[in-house]
Design a protein that fits this description.
The chain is of the alpha+beta class. Helix content is about 35%, strand content about 20%. The longest helix has 22 residues. The structure holds guanosine-5'-monophosphate. The site of guanosine-5'-monophosphate has 13 residues, from strand 2.
Length: about 140
């Protein structure tokens, strides 16, 4: 069941202090720790303290607190590394690249030609199409 699934989840173990991690920052909502698969030095993960699978599952207060911690992590990266840039990445669902099904945000320093690439297959929908989709989304809020 869902409890068993949660217990098997590495990040849930980390946020509960049952699995060791190199912690940078924490509060009641989120735990910020070093990514064991860092793309660049300073790569951190902001993980939810409660077990939520994804962004869609986050209550408003948790969502706000997660991004507050991400901003603090970004300021620490800025101070320590003075990087060329900072990326924030957050995947929801396997098709989106999520591999650990406990909500988390990546915050990492970026450098020119650091090898992290992202294809962004732009389409150019008509204004009418954008309006049609926006109406559907507004109705779902
Ligand atoms: P996702 O693809 O789900 O956004 O990213 C999961 C991230 O978690 C990966 O970057 C991976 O390196 C990291 N990760 C997976 N397992 C562990 C772990 O046990 N400890 C730490 N610190 N990071 C982990």
């Amino acid at each position: 069941g869902p409890v068993t699934k949660a217990i098997q989840d590495a990040f849930f173990g980390i946020v509960r202090g049952e699995i060791p991690a190199t912690v940078v920052l924490q509060d009641e909502h989120a735990l910020v720790f070093m990514d064991i698969g860092s793309v660049n030095p300073g790569h951190m993960l902001v993980a939810a303290k409660p077990h939520v699978e994804n962004l869609q599952g986050m209550a408003a207060e948790l969502a706000g607190a997660m991004f507050r911690s991400a901003a603090r992590a970004a300021r620490a990266i800025e101070a320590v590394f003075r990087p060329a840039g900072i990326s924030v990445y957050q995947a929801n669902g396997a098709a989106a690249g999520q591999t650990v099904f406990h909500a988390h945000i990546h915050v990492l320093p970026r450098w020119e030609n650091d090898g992290l690439t992202f294809t962004w297959p732009v389409k150019h929908p008509s204004r009418e199409e954008l309006e049609r989709v926006a109406a559907q989304l507004r109705a779902a809020l």
